[in-house]
Amino acid sequence: MSFSDIDSHVHARDLENDDGNDQPVANKQQSITIIFPAFNEEANIRTAVEQGRRAMSKFFTDIEIIVINDGSSDATGTIVDQLAMECDDVVSIRHEVNRGYGAALRSGIERARKELIFFTDSDLQFDLEEIRHLEKWIRKYDIVA
């Protein structure tokens, strides 16, 4: 699908009419891939993966977590490889040199195997529990940001 194929758009009035009902859906059917681009995130990456899994498991029963080590010079790659060996839901992708955020996202998106794709930074700057505010929109629109 290309952006030109998308015929659904979120309008400001949709958000203004938000009923505030941010409870998890009772029927968790859709699967999701979480993508974490990572560059020198040894201090955060394990926690980011754990938070991603915890936040998404409230809404989805089938979760895949892809971490792209984008040429890190610290222990990020080692930690991600270890997580992938320990956890069936974690996939490790390694860029030998830093190719940038866009290239890391592309690698993750190309590898994603689940119905939905969610990406976020791996430096813990966002509260992933806030997915609850977006979840109700994903069944209505092609892209939610």
Model description:
- The protein is of the alpha/beta class and 145 residues long.
- The protein contains 5 helices and 4 strands.
- Strands 3-2-1-4 form a 4-stranded parallel beta sheet, sandwiched between helices.
- α3 links the parallel β2 and β3.
SSE layout:
Elements: H1 12-16, E1 31-38, H2 45-56, E2 62-70, H3 76-86, E3 90-95, H4 101-111, E4 116-119, H5 132-138
Parallel strand pairs: 1-2, 1-4, 2-3
Strand adjacency order, main sheet = 3-2-1-4
Order of helices and strands: HEHEHEHEH
- Structural class, by secondary structure, is alpha/beta
Q: Span between N and C termini?
A: 17 Å
DSSP helical segment count: 5
Specify the biggest β-sheet: 4 strands, parallel
Radius of gyration: 16 Å
User: Which outline best applies?
Assistant: globular
Tell me the total number of β-strands. 4
Helical content class: 25-40%
Measured by DSSP, the beta-strand proportion falls in 15-25%
Spans where pLDDT lies below 50 across 5 or more residues: 1-19, 22-27
Mean pLDDT, all residues: 83
Provide keyphrases for this structure:
disordered N terminus, 19% strand, 5 helices, 145 residues, 4 strands, single chain, alpha/beta, globular
Structure, briefly:
This protein has 5 helices and 4 strands; from the N terminus they run αβαβαβαβα. It has helices spanning 12-16, 45-56, 76-86, 101-111, 132-138; strands spanning 31-38, 62-70, 90-95, 116-119.
